[in-house]
Structures are given as structure tokens and as C-alpha cells.
Amino acid sequence: MMNSSKSTHTLIDDLKRVEEIQNELNQVKNFNDLRRLKKELRDIKSRATATDNTLSQISNHRRTSAIQKAKRRSLVSSR
Amino acid sequence: MIMYTKEVDDKVDVDNTLGFWGTLLKELNIINQIEVPFIFGIIGALCFLLITVFKQGPRILNFGTWYSTILMFLSFLALGGVAGIAAVNILNSNATTTEALVLGIIAGLSGMVYLERISLMDNIGQENVFLNAIKKEQDFSQELKEDLNARKGKDDAINEWFDYRELFFEEQNPEASEEEIGAFFDKLELEAKQIWGGIDDE
To answer: What ipTM is given for this predicted complex?
Structure first.
């Protein structure tokens, strides 16, 4: 029943990637690799901030799917 | 006070008419001790870059962005120049132009290695800089992880709350029209704002 939105799915992916980066940080040997990991962390941070799931976004997403569901139901019943 | 100043001046033998910079410039052979080794140190560094490019291809000079590539290129040349000056003044400060030229090129060829070898410091400082940079990123990643976990927890909780309310509404109104659903969601959103107040303000 739990409807995870697309952004929540991205959040899970980002969380996994952050954990991987934390492991890589323990083994990093040079500045180039460190710079790459740093950039990736900053990208994840900006993505998380940009796709901030506000209440209205969640509500709108769920409203749209509920209305589509009702439309489909009325179509089936009219046939 | 006057006596003291005179005493100090006598000790360091500074010509008061020229001042510090004047004395320094008078003592230095600018051409052979600074200019020639710096210029030929840069030429040495350029030669090293050319050799590296011939051996490993031009991609070796790519540092990601054009400005970082230019910055690294100029820094490398400057290192060659400084190594040239250091080499001439340490090994032969009375060098003729030819000697300064040769020493400058040789030191400039591997300026970074030369400066590291003649320096009295070890690489503990560099390692500390690297370790600090790693520590900073580890702290940042930990904060980011906690932030993402909090966001995920909040999203999950909101979605779960909506799930229960929607399920209840569907059971009570199985044939609800679009308008009814819209009105229900308007009401639901108001209620949610009272419960999850402040989420929209983030």
C-alpha cells in the first residue's frame, strides 16, 4: 500500500551512494579521487535540496493519481 | 636610542643611503642570479612537460576544467623558475651567465623534485593537508547521510499518513467523483499542514 514517490526512490539511491562514498573515503589515496568524491557529494546535496519533497508536492502527486484512478473506474463502469 | 640604531647599522653593514632594498639590489647580480635562472628554469620545466606529453600523450595535461589546466600549467612553470633560482644561488652564486643558464635548465627540468629534495621540511605537512581534506569530506558525508535519512523518514511518514486516509476515504466512498476526490484532498492537505506544520517552510 505504501506508495513511494519517484523522489523518495532517488533519495534511497542517493543514500546508498553516500554510504559507498563513505567507504571509498576511507581508502582514498590521492587528491584527484578525493576531488571526484567531493564533487559527487556536493551533487547529491544539491539534488536533495532541489527535489525537496514538500507536503504540497506529495499531496499533488497523490491527488493526481487518485483522480486518474477514479477516471479509470468510471470508464470501466460506463462500459 | 640614536646610539643603539647606529650600533645595529654598523653590525649589519646596511648602507643607509640605499636602504634595505637598495643594498639587496646592489649585492645581487640580478641578471645572473635571478633573471637568467628563472627564465631558463621555466624553459627546463617546459622541456619536462614536452617530454611527458611525448611519452604519455596530451591527455596528461588535462586537469578537468580549462582554468585548472592553465593554473596547473603556470604553477608548474613557476616551480621550474623558482627551482632554477634556488639551484644557482645555492650551488654557485657567482655563476657566469652560461653557468646560471645550464643550472637553471637542469633544476627547472624537475623543479618540484629539486625543491622537495633541498627543502628542510618533510612531507608531514602535505599529508596533514590531505588527511584534513579527507576528514572534512567524511564529516560532510555523515551530515548529508543524516539529512537524507531525515528527509526519507519524513517522506515515508507523510506518505503513510496519506495512505491510511486515502484507504479510509475509498472504503467510505467507493464511487467518488473527481470533484469529491479534489475536495477530499483539499481538506486532507489542510489537515496535513496542521500535523506536519513547517514542512513547506524548509
So the answer is: 0.73
